Structure formats: structure tokens, C-alpha cells
Amino acid sequence: MLHVFLDESGDLGWSLDKPYRQGGSSRFLTLAFMVADQDETKHPKRLVKRFCQGHGMHAGHELKGYDLSAGQLLAFAERAAAMLEKHSSIHLCAITVNKQKVQDHIRKDANKLYNYMLSLSLLEHVKSSPTVVLSPDARSIKVASGSSLVDYLQTQLWFEHNATTVLHHQPLESQKSLAIQCVDVVAHIVWGFHEDAKARPYKVLAPHMRIRHLFFD
Q: What are phi and psi for residue 96, nearest 5 degrees?
């Protein structure tokens, strides 16, 4: 059984006529996810726990990418890269859309864009597994339509990929899930490279990830 932990950075808003953080929406949206066998999920959990301990964060602190300094993001990227080198069966992946180049008719239903992004990037990693548990952050921007996301992905697996994979939906509260917290920081690192040109942590982590882009041309 594979477990997939999912989170995002950026938003699905389309107020692009104003600067981001000054009344405007983000120019990019990044979905990041981690794919791991059930027995391997202990490694990202340990990464987060030890990172928090090493940076003086109290037990139970919820690690969020946007709270971290540039130095802390770099340190996290180095730890995550080391984890991926040591445990090759764990996969960290991300897909980023340049919202400024998304056509008007697609903007009318951003849920479909989100679903397509995840289908494009995730299914190739899980289609050979008989059972997959998909765990987004329960506070994700997609929670309201989570069932439609799972239905869409299941249909794609069975009819487009000719897979027998059964997909289960299990949202997790990020404050209680160290694995979701790990993916949160990864999503922030990838998104921050595009949105704010924060290159150092991205350049450390990106060579160890599978990264895709949508509407960049």
C-alpha cells in the first residue's frame, strides 16, 4: 500500500491585476506530494521532528514553510535531500502552474485545474500499486470538493492508465501529521522559487525531486 501526502502553496484566486500580498492573488500555485510505502513514512516524520528540535521549536509545534527564515528553509532542503538520497523508495514531487498564462475559460472552474495538475503529476507514481491512500491537508483549498478530486483520479487510473489501483481518501489535520508538515515546507520551497525568486533551498532540493510545470510556455 502506498501513502500519498499532499499540500499546496499559493492560491486559486485570479486577482492578477494587483500585486500579490497587496490585494492580488499569487501568480503561481504549487502542488507538492510525497509518495511512500507505509513502512517508509516514518522517515519524513523523523525529519520534521529532528528539524524542529534542532531549531529550538517546542514539541508539538506545527512546522509551516511560510514561518521559516531563508536559512531554515535551506537547512530543511538539505535534510530532505539527504533523506531522499538515503531512502530511494520515497518520492517527493511537485507541479507548479503559472496562473498568468491560464486561459479565461479554465479560470472559471479552478477545481478542474487543480484536479488536472494532480492527475498529470501523481498517477504515474501510483498506478502500479493495488491500494493508495491519498492524504491532503484537511485545511487544503480543495477540501470542499475532495470527493470530486478522488472520483476524477480514480476514473483516470482505471480508464486512462488501465490500472486496477483503488484510491482511498484520508484527509489529515496538518498540526497532527508530521508527514503533511514535511510536504508543506517542500511545497513552499518550490513555490517560493517561482513566486519570490528564492533560489537557494530550491536548488538544493530540486535535483532530488520530480518537478513539473504547467502553462510556462
A: -120, 135
All structural domains of the chain: 2-214 (3.30.420.10)
* 159: exposed, middle or buried (Cβ count in 10 Å: 0-12, 13-18, 19+): exposed
Residue 80's contacts (CB-CB under 8 Å, 6 or more residues apart) are 47, 92, 182, 185, 186, 205, 208
In whole angstroms, what is the distance from residue 40 CA to residue 191 CA?
26
> How far apart (Å, rounded) are the C-alpha atoms in residues 156 and 64?
32
Q: What is the pLDDT along the chain (217 residues), one digit of tens a residue?
A: 999 999 999 999 999 999 999 999 999 999 999 999 999 999 999 999 999 999 999 988 999 999 999 999 999 999 999 999 999 999 999 999 999 999 999 999 888 999 999 999 999 999 999 999 999 998 876 645 556 899 999 999 999 999 999 999 999 999 999 999 999 999 999 999 999 999 999 999 999 999 999 999 9
Reported pTM: 0.96
